[in-house]
Each structure stands twice: as structure tokens, then as C-alpha cells.
């Protein structure tokens, strides 16, 4: 079986590494961590990566964004400030150019939009903010109902997607003069931890602590959403490869899942509500009236993942994968649906990453994947043989 090949390990950071990115067109990596350091790692003649820069910030460095055309580096901090640096051509120095006093809490995500000259950010103060990178002036802000956790941006439409701790995603259209709230996407039962955007097909991917990924068809404007259920623990990070149309996801279980986003998929049905099993009529345990009339003990309510009907455990003894609906592990189905499922060919592959993954970054040109682990190690992988 094809699998990612480990190229290198970057070690020596003694605190939580919050994020790291591969430097485009260079054998280099930039990392930020809770020990307040920003480190620029370059590959040496020995084949190992060593820091060429180790810069200490005023507080824990929580997020970063690097613009490859201009080598402008933006660092979000625990104190709410975003600091801008200019990386030198040899990556041996990074003069400080500007501070943005953006938030009153930890900066959880930030993006630099070069065409608009905007610095977009969100934080634990429940605010999404955007600033002009030419003047440093604040252009606007929007308050969400919970901590903001992640951010994505479509440069063609200026749509901004803000995920929060409450499980919602707010869609905003931003400009130099203000913003317009387009909609709020609700589908996760846990906090939204990561977002990825397919700018070609206008698909938004969201990963959550509820162990699920939802694919939102923003461009279709019909409210279509598909679920991808392949993780057994919190989903922490997503990366999308537009060239191969594959979504990469990982998280606390330490498994990299690669989803084929060319495959035709079906929406998962809404779960029906009933006071009795919709197959055999057995009353559920809260239906006291029917229990008394039938002189029987109430049963627990379950749901068939394929048809969504409310059923008892006797009528849902079967298990099956349903890849077309995003279920890559076996789930509960009713007898009728079990017989109707004929196609069980997986639409995703699973690979061991050897550590619980907090963050990752995909360089499509190099076909390299960087993973940041809870073990405080950065791993570099060759994924050329597993991407289509």
C-alpha cells in the first residue's frame, strides 16, 4: 500500500508548537510556539534542519501567515497583537515592520490578502478583524457568539469564513468600508477547529471536535452539505489539494485521511423523530402511554445512517460502510438499507502519522506535507506517491 514517506524531523522546541509552514521554493520551515519563539529552519549540508533565526516575541506566538511573493511574515500572539516582519532573501534576518493591535485575547488565526492589502484575523476575544496592511488602520470588525477558532478567505468574492467554538461558521463579505453578513452555517455539534477552501468549485470544508468533516457547497447556493465520517477523534487540521482534488485531514488520533473529492457523494438524511420504532412499532422509553398500553418496557432510540429513520436496536442489528455518504467506518443501518447497499468501495485512504497532529501544511508543488504534533516534533513527509 502506498503511504507517506518520512523525510525529516525537526526537534528541539520544549513547548507547544502552534503552527508551522513550509517555505515555498526553499528547503525551509517557519514555526511558532508557546515558548514565544518564531523559528526559521533551513536545511543544512548534513541534511538536517537547523534554525537560522530564533526570534522571541512579547508573548506566546500562536499563529502565522507567510506571503511567498513579498516574503512578508505575520505573527499572531497570545496578547492579541499581530506583528509583521520582512524576511531577508537569505532567510537569515527578519526586520520588524509593524504591529497591529488587533485583539484583546489570543490570535487564533490570521491571513494576509495581498491583492486587497488586508490582514484578516480572529481571536479568543470573539472578534474577527481586518486591517489595512499599508497604513495599519483597522477597517472593520465583527463579533461572533463564541471564541473564533479558524479562518478562510476567498479572494475572488471577498467572502470570509469564520469558525467558532460553538460549532458555527459565519460567512461575511468584507470590504474597505464594512461588511455584510451572508449567512451562518450550522451543522457541527462540536467546535469548528479548521477550515479549507476550494476556490475552483467554491466548496468550504470544515473539521470539528465532533470528529466529523462537512463539505459546504457555497457556489451551488442550494444549501447542499455532505458529511465525511472517517475520524475516531477530534479533527484538528485540513489541507486541500486543488490539483488532485483531494482533501487531507488529521487530528488527535494521529491518522492522515485523504478524501477523494472528485467522487460523487450523497447528502446524509436528517434524523427522524418518533415516539416509537418506525419499523416494528416498539415504544421508546419516554413514551410512557404506549408502554402502559402495550404492557412492555420501552427501548432506546437509534437511527439508520442511510435513511435516517428512528429505529430500535433489534431493527438495526446490521452495520455497513456507506462511502458515498462519507461513512468510511461501519455504522448502524436498518435491514432494508443493508440490503440496498451494493457499493462499499472506499473513497478515502488512511495513513499513520506517528503522532497526534495539531496542524499541517501542504506544499502541492513540492508534494511535501508538514505535520506539527502534540509530541512537539515537526515532521516532513513526501506525499507524492499518495496524491493523485
Automatic annotation (TrEMBL):
What SUPFAM superfamilies does the annotation carry?
FYVE/PHD zinc finger (SSF57903), WD40 repeat-like (SSF50978)
PROSITE patterns given in the database record = WD_REPEATS_1, WD_REPEATS_2, WD_REPEATS_REGION, ZF_FYVE
Instruction: State the signal peptide span.
Output: none
Q: Which residues form the FYVE-type domain?
A: 271-342
Cellular localization per UniProt: Early endosome
Per UniProt, which keywords does this protein have?
A: Endosome, Metal-binding, Repeat, WD repeat, Zinc, Zinc-finger
Checking Gene3D superfamilies in the record gives:
YVTN repeat-like/Quinoprotein amine dehydrogenase, Zinc/RING finger domain, C3HC4 (zinc finger)
GO CC terms in record:
early endosome
Q: Please report the residue spans annotated as repeat (WD).
A: 185-218, 228-269, 350-383
Q: Name one GO molecular function term.
A: zinc ion binding
Short name of one Pfam family: WD40
Q: What is this protein called?
A: FYVE-type domain-containing protein
Amino acid at each position: 500500500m502506498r503511504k507517506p514517506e518520512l523525510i525529516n524531523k525537526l526537534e528541539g522546541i520544549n513547548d507547544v508548537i502552534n503552527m508551522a509552514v513550509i517555505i515555498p521554493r526553499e528547503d525551509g520551515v517557519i514555526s511558532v510556539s508557546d515558548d514565544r519563539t518564531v523559528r526559521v529552519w533551513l536545511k543544512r549540508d548534513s541534511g538536517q534542519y537547523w534554525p537560522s533565526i530564533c526570534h522571541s516575541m512579547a508573548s506566546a506566538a500562536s499563529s502565522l501567515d507567510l506571503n511567498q511573493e513579498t516574503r512578508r511574515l505575520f505573527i499572531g500572539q497570545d496578547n492579541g497583537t499581530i506583528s509583521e516582519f520582512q524576511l531577508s532573501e537569505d532567510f537569515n534576518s527578519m526586520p520588524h515592520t509593524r504591529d497591529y493591535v488587533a485583539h484583546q485575547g489570543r490570535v487564533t488565526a490570521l491571513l494576509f490578502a495581498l491583492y486587497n492589502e488586508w490582514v484578516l484575523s480572529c481571536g479568543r476575544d470573539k472578534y474577527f478583524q481586518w486591517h489595512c496592511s499599508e497604513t495599519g488602520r483597522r477597517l472593520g470588525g465583527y463579533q461572533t457568539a463564541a471564541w473564533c477558532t479558524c479562518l478562510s478567505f476567498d479572494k475572488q468574492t471577498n467572502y470570509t469564513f469564520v469558525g467558532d467554538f460553538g460549532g458555527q461558521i459565519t460567512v461575511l463579505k468584507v470590504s474597505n468600508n464594512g461588511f455584510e453578513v451572508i449567512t451562518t452555517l450550522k451543522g457541527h455539534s462540536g467546535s469548528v477547529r479548521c477550515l479549507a477552501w476550494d476556490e475552483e468549485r467554491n466548496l468550504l470544508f470544515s473539521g470539528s471536535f465532533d470528529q466529523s468533516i462537512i463539505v459546504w457547497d457555497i457556489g451551488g447556493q442550494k444549501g447542499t452539505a455532505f458529511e465525511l465520517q472517517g475520524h475516531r477523534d477530534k479533527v484538528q487540521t485540513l489541507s486541500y489539494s486543488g490539483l488532485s482534488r483531494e482533501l487531507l485531514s488529521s487530528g488527535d488520533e494521529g491518522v492522515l485521511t485523504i478524501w477523494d473529492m472528485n467522487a460523487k457523494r450523497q447528502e446524509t438524511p436528517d434524523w427522524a423523530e418518533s415516539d416509537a420504532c418506525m419499523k416494528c412499532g416498539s415504544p421508546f422509553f419516554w413514551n410512557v402511554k404506549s408502554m402502559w398500553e402495550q404492557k412492555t418496557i420501552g427501548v432506546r432510540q437509534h437511527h439508520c445512517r442511510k435513511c435516517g429513520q428512528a429505529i430500535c436496536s433489534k431493527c438495526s442489528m446490521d452495520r455497513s460502510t456507506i462511502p458515498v455518504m462519507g461513512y468510511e467506518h461501519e455504522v448502524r443501518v436498518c435491514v432494508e438499507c443493508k440490503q440496498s447497499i451494493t457499493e462499499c468501495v472506499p473513497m478515502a485512504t488512511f495513513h499513520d502519522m506517528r503522532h497526534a497532529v495539531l496542524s499541517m501544511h501542504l506544499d502541492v508543488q513540492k508534494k511535501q506535507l508538514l505535520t506539527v504534533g502534540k509530541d512537539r516534533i515537526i515532521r516532513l513527509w513526501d506525499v507524492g506517491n499518495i496524491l493523485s
